[in-house]
Amino acid sequence: MRAPLFIAALAMTTQAAPAGPPELVWPLDCVQGQTCYIEDYVDADPGPGQADYTCGLKSRDGHRGTDIVLRDFAMISAGVAVRAAAPGVVSAMRDGMEDVAVTAETRAEISKQGCGNAVRIDHGDGWQTLYCHLKKGSVAVRSGDRVDAGQQIGLVGLSGLTNIPHLHIGVLRDGVVIDPFAPEHTTRCGAPDGPGLWAETPIYHQTGFITAGMATGVPSFDAVKSGAARADTAHPSEPLVLYGHFHHAQTGDVLTLSADGPEGEIFSHSEVLKSPNASQFKAFGRKAPPGGWPEGAYRGIARLTRAGELIAWRHADIEVTSQ
After folding, report:
1. Per-residue pLDDT tens for 71-123?
2. Which fold has domain 36-177?
3. C-alpha distance from residue 54 to each of 14, 57, 80, 89, 206 (Å)
4. C or N terminus of the chain, fewer CB within 10 Å?
5. Phi/psi of residue 225, each to 5°?
């Protein structure tokens, strides 16, 4: 779903003057917990499996950056500025890739340019930051440009290996991936040895979604965990069900499961979690109306909030067809 850290075959230019570790400012025009949240961190597990810098679950195997996810797809159209996290010199950029969600059919081709439209900034002394999945035509800098911290360099898009609106920001030192939350760690997780690279450390929540999917009936937990529950198509006469599989929710968190189709909303259900388990799933849906569902594309949204604060969300798509 998200891109590798490096941009292949992009021209390098003059490097910034040597400096110490960069101090990073928040790189998006969004407010954490309101219009965006951090979904994935650098994978601190050197082997198979994944762990974020706290030894939590909020990473993916081999993930090489921090993913900041926008509240919804509409924010792409509105335009959300991506900003340089620290001063430096633009060492590479790419623009022109379409903002199209990756699919199983397009993954292999898009993988060649998985970061999508992107900017790489050199901060000196071997330090670089990389900004992936920018909106087509939005890149506002060119190789060789000197930028200040907070300067706009593009807009969030849907280019490269992604199907959700987000910024992937990566940090490197001499080509080695560095977790800005625990820069002293390269092959382990746990309590950081010292402060991270952020000027103001973003909030960390261990709660998140493992997956969400659309199904044609209420699935078993085993089917959810194995992926067998997910349906890509449904007959107009079949029920439509959205499920969300999540981890480390807290008592009082609110789970909302909703879905829209060609004629608008088909259901919306919210519930307060009373005694959540470390890992669990919930599902909600509707039987087909008389005459069946209109054919076309349907999208479900699973969302977790805590005291009004956005913690996580996932989407799932299904096509209703009589074929």
Report:
1. 999 999 999 999 999 999 999 999 999 999 998 888 998 988 999 999 999 99
2. Glucose Permease (Domain IIA) (2.70.70)
3. 36, 9, 29, 32, 9
4. C
5. -65, -35
